[in-house]
Amino acid sequence: MTIDSRFARDRYVIRRKILTLIGAAFHVFDHAGNVVLYSRQKAFRLREDLRLFTGEDMSHEVLRIAARQIIDFGATYEVVDSQTDQHIGSLRRRGFKSLLRDEWTFLDPDGREIGRVIEDDSGLAILRRVIDVVTFFIPQEYHIQSNGQTIGQYRRRRNPFVHRVEVNLTADSTGHIDRRLALAGGLLLCAIEGRQR
User: Which residue has the higher pLDDT, 95 or 26?
Assistant: First the structure.
C-alpha cells in the first residue's frame, strides 16, 4: 500500500485560525510553505471529530481523528486513513498527569505503546497554566520519545488570533512513528490543549 505523499515529510507547520461562532480552521504546511492539508473544526461538539482534507473545498478527505468517548478527560483519539479505512493507531491523553504537564501516548493499531509526547519543562508548564500570558512569550515544546530516545518535537506558539504547531520528525530516520499519527498529534495539540486554560 502506498501512503499519500502529503504524509511522507519530516517537517510540517500547523496553523489554527480562530473563527468566532463556527469553530476553527487548520492549515497544514510543508517545510517549503505549501499548504498540503486543511481541516475545519466545528464549534460546540461533545465528541471531538477532526477530518483532514486535501484542500479548503473539503471534497477529498484523507484522515480522520475521532475521540472514542464523549467528554473524556483522559481521552483516546483514533486515527484512521480515510481513503483505505485503515486504523493507523491512537493517541491517548494522560488525564491527570496532563494537569501539570501535558503528556500523550502514541499507540499502534493493536493498542501497544510505541511512543510518548511530553511537555518540555514542569516548571514552565505550571507557570503557563497559572499565568496564561506566559504562553505568548515562551513557546511550549513537546518531545516525541520512543524506546527512550527523542525522535521528534512539537513546538507550539500562540497569539490571540493564530495558534501554530511546528512538527519536526527529522530525528526519526527509520520512520518509527507514522507521519499520519504524528500529524494527528500536532492537530490535537492545536485543537485540544488550547482549551485547557
Answer: 26
Q: Please answer whether residues 89 and 178 qualify as being in contact, where contact means their C-beta atoms are separated by less than 8 angstroms.
A: yes
Specify the pairing of strand 86-93 against strand 76-81: antiparallel
Nearest-angstrom CA–CA distance, 133 and 93: 24
What are the tens digits of pLDDT across the range 8-56?
A: 899 999 998 766 556 788 999 998 999 999 998 876 565 678 999 999 9
Residues 122-176 pLDDT 10s: 555 555 555 555 566 667 889 999 988 999 999 988 777 788 899 999 999 888 8
The H or E element that residue 134 is part of is helix 134-137
Distance CA 87, CA 81 (A): 7
φ, ψ of residue 19 to 5 degrees: the values are: -115, 120
Residue with cell 512539537: 154
How far is residue 16 CA from its own chain's centroid? 11
Cell readout for 40 is 475545519
The whole model's pTM is what? 0.84
CA distance 45 to 64: 15
For 7-158, strand residue ranges (E) read 11-19, 23-30, 35-41, 49-53, 61-67, 76-81, 86-93, 103-107, 113-119, 140-146, 149-158
Contact assessment for residue 23 and residue 43, using Cβ atoms and an 8 Å cutoff: yes
